Amino acid sequence: MNRPAYLAAFAVLALGACSPKEENTAAPAAQTAEAAQVGQTGPLSRDAIENTAYAPPPAAQEGQPAAANAAHQPPQPALIRAQVLLERARFSPGAIDGLAGSNMRQAISAFQEANGMTVNGELNADVMGRLRAAAGPGAVTTTYTITQQDIAGPYLGVVPTELEAQGQAAHMGYANIVEALAERFHVTEALLRAMNPGADFNRVGQGLLVPAVNTAPLPADVDHIDVDKSEGSVKAFDADGKLIAYFPATIGSGDNPTPTGTVKVNGVARNPDYTYDPSKLSYGDGKKKVVVKPGPNNPVGVVWIDLNKPSYGIHGTPDPHLVGKTASHGCVRLTNWDAWMLADKVKPGVTVRFI
Q: Is the entire prediction scored with pTM above 0.70?
């Protein structure tokens, strides 16, 4: 299985500034000699993920919202399967985590709407059947074997979070191999570990159970994009007006709102530098210009889709698990892999509507 192109050497491209990284949540890799058993039995085994029927989460306890109960639920194998199928059908749930969160509910709602179904965001047998038909056959999990190249990195160990420290870093790569592999397979680090209990991530030849994600290009060029500010989503359409991709997105905050109306794409920068220029920005208290080198932990991730409104763009993120959960400084933030896929089919002149 090939690594995404953005995991190769970083190109240096300048761009206008956007939101800096909000927080660093990279965890150190597990250091254990015990090998993970890819065919293990247990709650997140290959068989469980492929075959377990979905059971809705229990009702909230009296006096507690359902979200409070859901927050304490462990990853569910059926939800992992559904999230992989959603991604294959081009209705991205963001980072695959096996949890019934807001990104997944919105992706299901978008899928239901696109397929003429009752829109309620609920996963049921009908939705699962339609997803399987739309996503195509094949297992939703696969086996990946750790290579020497994976172990070699290079890795930062600790990713700097302060802008000035980021500007001094030689690159903004991954903290460690777990973060790198989680992004490659579009999962949270927590789920990657949970699917591979006892794995030694620093051993060449270690087998891992991972989602069989879709890295194929979108089926057509993008003609226009809708950014739904209330929903927190990006929808890409082809020239016939057909929805070809749905992505959860982090949208601008009240203090730094995302633009309103229609703009156009100027161009695409892959593996860009990030430039903080306090003379051109309305946020932050920095006193001097800072240029941050490329890498997946760059404040704008691995892709910048430049819009013809200065300093605004659609871009990646160093924190994929936060997409759709926080506010940006006016730009539109996607997971790195969703931004890369969208950028692949976007050309200058594409219309972007903020609705």
A: yes
